[in-house]
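Contributing new complexes? Match this layout with zinc ion.
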Amino acid sequence: MDEFSNSEEEYSSYWVEWFLQTKGNEYLCEVDEDFLSDRFNLTGLNSFVPHYSMALDLINDNFGNDSKKIDDETKRVVDDSAKKLYGLIHARFIVTARGLLKMAEKYRQGDFGRCPRTLCKGACVLPHGQHDYLGEGKVRLYCPKCEDIYTPKSSRHSNMDGAFFGTTFAPFFFLSYPNLIPRHNPNDQYTPRIFGFKVHHSAKVHRLQYRLMAPEFQLQARKRLGLEKPRSVEAPALGAATARAQKGESSPSAMN
Ligand SMILES: [Zn+2]
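Output block (do not edit by hand):
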């Protein structure tokens, strides 16, 4: 649906409703009006989207008169800004008590889909962002059963910016609703078998030994133990100063 193909009245009256009903935006919940109208909740967001004021007017359905004065290209930019701005406000809203409640309802209904991992047996998933800033990554789905993240199956969902949910929401959600975390069953862990027999424990030891022999693993281990000193910027300068001191030269600063 293209909002500019609608009449001016429809365009200026139902922006949030239209946006939430657009295909691909099913993961979003409606931000409460009182949250949206409190400017404190929007602090700092003006630096993330162009035409911030007009975008906010569009979200709040106050854009009707202004829209007649500006050209179509600006309208398109304002509309794009409004979508991004609403997404960023949404990320802030869903970590409030009201927002968590709304998302919990959607989670219970399975609105976000189910885990694709076979042994999770259709556990409900939650949208999750790996970044908090726009344009840094798309939305992922977090499964509380296998504690892993997945790309949404549908491209219309997978194109949504991850910043509309942010990095805090999913962990905070399950901290707030621990009763919604599915029970972990040891039988949900897959056991590989060869001709019906479990793979012997010693096979894991062989794999580990093979890894230990790899040069990149040895380098990582040496770094972790502090045996491999990372290159620093100061080290050569200090080395040069020491060399000069040994030769009996004075440093440039001492000469002044
Ligand atoms: Zn899972």
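Reviewers usually confirm one structural detail per submission. For this one: Strands lie at 126-128, 140-143, 148-150, 193-194, 197-198.
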